[in-house]
Design a protein that fits this description.
14% helix; eight-stranded antiparallel beta barrel; 8 strands; mainly beta
Length: 140
C-alpha cells in the first residue's frame, strides 16, 4: 500500500513539472529573402578563372571572384565552384550547369562561408550569357 502511495505521488509530481514548463516554442526556419548575384569572368585561363561580382536584394556586396569549372566527359554538363571574396568574408557557391540550351543554365547553392557569411545559405536558378554568371534566388 505504501508503494502505491509513493508511486502515485511520483506520477503527480512529474505531471505538475510537465505542465508547469509551459508550451515548447516551435522551430522557426530562417525566412528566404530574394537575392541576385552577378559574376563576370575572364575565361582566358580556363578552367580556373577570375573576375568580379556584385549582389543586390537581401545582400549588397561586391568584390573579386574565382571559379573552377569541371566539365563531364561529353562537355554538356559541368560542376563549378565559385568563390566570392568580400571585404568581410568569403562565400562558396556550388553550381550545376548544363550547356544544351542557349544561354546555358543551371542551379546554384551556397554551401559555406567565412566571416560575416559563415552561416549564410541560399540557392536558385542560374543563367550564363557570355562571360557572366547570373544567379537569382533566395538567401536565408
Amino acid at each position: 500500500m505504501r508503494h502505491n502511495k509513493m508511486f502515485c505521488a511520483a506520477i503527480m509530481l512529474c505531471m505538475i513539472a510537465f505542465f508547469a514548463m509551459g508550451p515548447v516554442p516551435a522551430y522557426s526556419a530562417p525566412k528566404p529573402t530574394p537575392v541576385t548575384i552577378t559574376a563576370t569572368f575572364d575565361f582566358s585561363t580556363f578552367p580556373d578563372v577570375a573576375g568580379t561580382f556584385t549582389t543586390s536584394g537581401a545582400l549588397t556586396i561586391s568584390g573579386d571572384a574565382t571559379m573552377h569549372v569541371g566539365f563531364n566527359a561529353d562537355g554538356i554538363r559541368a560542376h563549378c565552384v565559385v568563390t566570392l571574396i568580400a571585404p568581410d568574408g568569403v562565400i562558396i557557391i556550388h553550381q550545376e550547369c548544363q550547356f544544351a540550351t542557349s544561354p546555358p543554365k543551371g542551379r546554384w547553392e551556397i554551401v559555406s562561408g567565412t566571416g560575416a557569411y559563415a552561416k549564410l545559405r541560399g540557392n536558385g536558378p542560374l543563367l550564363m550569357p557570355d562571360d557572366e554568371e547570373a544567379m537569382t534566388g533566395v538567401i536565408f
